[in-house]
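>> received
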Amino acid sequence: MQDALDRRQRIKSIIGGSAGNLVEWYDWYAYSAFTLYFAPAFFPSDDPTAQLLSAAAIFAVGFIMRPIGAWVMGIYADRKGRKAGLTFSVTLMCAGSLMIAVTPGYDQIGIFAPAILLTARLLQGLSVGGEYGASATYLSEMAGKQNRGFFSSFQYVTLISGQLIALCVLLLLQAIMPVHDLESWGWRIPFAAGGVLAIVVFYIRRGLSETNSFVAAKRDSTVKSSGWALFRYHPKQAMTVVLLTAGGTLAFYAYSTYMQKFLVNTSGFSRESATAITAAALFIYMLLQPVAGALSDRIGRKPLMVGFGVLGVAFTFLIFRTLETTSSSFAAFLLVLGALVIVTGYTAINAVVKAELFPAHIRALGVALPYALANTIFGGTAEYVALWFKGQGMERGFYIYVTAMIGVSLIVYLRMPDTRKTSLITED
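>> returned
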């Protein structure tokens, strides 16, 4: 009876943590999904690519705050608890979303408009930087040894769900609002809704249970979590996280958030068609995450990551090059889905792999900070680098860049142990 109660409590906590993660990532991705509509309000220009480039730059700047958020809130989650870290992160995300929702455009307040937009993204960057480590650690510690890959995969299920919901909100608004209204004020709706939902999540997270791993670490450990302790005592694990993330996060952002713009600017699809293609592919991709996570519980984490590395190196250039001249929506959907299936080998299990590398007293920081550094350098700049290559007339250089970074991560996957067998998560 007690085992059943423990299992129900475990599942309730995982659902609660995942729901909060969904709202956080919806707020984060709403920016990318609605860039095509709000960019003119903040960055007036006669060149649509220049507007997108400016908006992409602020998208990238938001990533600069992620290592700071990972550092500050990773330490906070290791010292004060995973629940405390999750609650703090959603508070910052709420503030950022509401700021974007109410900020007047460039025509009303001039340079202050992009300045406030930048400030809002910095707050959201702090939030997401802390969210990743706290949620990855919380879900991995709550999951239980036999199903750790499966349950921890719900971090990316909710991450993708947040992105997918943002795209679905865009599709809905495209269907019910005239283009002029959507460009002038309709794009504010998703940010306002995200801010309100974040308030709801704040109260949900206050009621979560703390993990046994944190409770035991707080009782037994004499070493406090800090950036110095991380790189002094766990340098190999920290560098492993940076390198295994580099190719995976770049591929993810290239295949997902940038793909919507690529289908419009390069393939020639309408904004509505590009959104629908991306949303459909992301939906199936979302469903694949727990399947891959469960598979890793049976065969190990390493085979999935190696599979992503090999297929990513082999097919990334071909997929993007074929999409350049694709006019069929269905063919484009299959190609985008193929790319997302490839990166599933990384996204479904990367959180649990990182969590399994570190002891509990420094786990949230160990997962968050090295990941955030790699994510800032490679993931956050993906759209900007892609648009830069396009602006220079060398668009295929971006395909080569993505392929090369996946190759770097593949070397790490081949050399590292299978963390399912060497896991430092001791909680059953």
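>> The mean pLDDT is 87.
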